[in-house]
Amino acid sequence: MQNISEKILDVATKGFALAGYDGTSLSAIAKEVGIKKPSLLYHYPSKEQLRSAVLNRVFEHWNDELPRILKLATSGEDRFNGLLNEIVRFFVTDPNRARLVMREMLDRPDHLSASMEDYLGPYITILSDYIQKGVERGEVRKDVQPRAYVLHVIQMVVGGVATASSIGATSIEDHVSEIVRIARSSLFVDTPQFQKTELSEEKNNG
Questions:
Q1: Angle of helix 76-93 relative to helix 47-72, nearest 10 degrees?
Q2: Chain centroid, CA 161 distance in Å
């Protein structure tokens, strides 16, 4: 059973993603959770602390998952597929996570940049170095800028999930799969024919 603290974070994530930080009151969050505002403040003493907890939970996921993914990956494309599939799965499972990150990009870019560096910096560096080695081996296009590429792919997936419904995408899975295809074809030399992500395969098999 979900505890109150986690439920508060779920409701706050949805509220901040859809209405923005300023447009979402603590009273509204407490009401949806089914508690009184003082009870919410017991768990999160201020709105700013709640905002930080919501965003930190998004990034803490990568602290838990990325080491496992990077350890299992043995080649350039395996590493690319493993990481990208995990990013897609995480944000498609709850698009409000992507909308929240998009809002933070616009509302508090400096704060978001610092959070990304704290949580994702080491892994972005690892992937950037791996891409650079792929360039040297002739597996990756020579004109790719590794760090910029990694950041742009993250931005594309987050933005794609966050805005899919507003631009009339037929399905969020197909929309993101096309983003992944573009990401693959712009990275690897002679990229094999694109196959849909595991997420899409699971949907079709279901």
A1: 150
A2: 9
Q: How far is CA 135 from CA 48, 78, 131, 140, 182, in A?
A: 43, 16, 6, 5, 18
Q: How far is CA 186 from CA 17, 104, 143, 180, in A?
A: 30, 27, 10, 10
Residues of the chain with confidence (pLDDT) below 50: 191-202
**Alpha carbon distance 96, 14 (integer Å):** 6
Q: What is the CATH number of the domain that holds 19?
A: 1.10.10.60
The encoded tokens of residue 51 equal: 């905002």
What radius of gyration do the chain's Cα atoms show? 19
Please state the pTM of the whole predicted model: 0.79
pLDDT, tens digit, 9 for 90 and up, residues 136-157: 999 899 999 999 999 999 899 9
Are residue 4 and residue 82 in the same domain, yes or no?
no
C-alpha distance across the termini of the chain, in Å: 27
User: Residue 100 sits in a domain of what CATH number?
Assistant: 1.10.357.10
Domain that holds residue 199: 54-205
What is the pLDDT at residue 72? 61
DSSP three-state, residue 188: strand
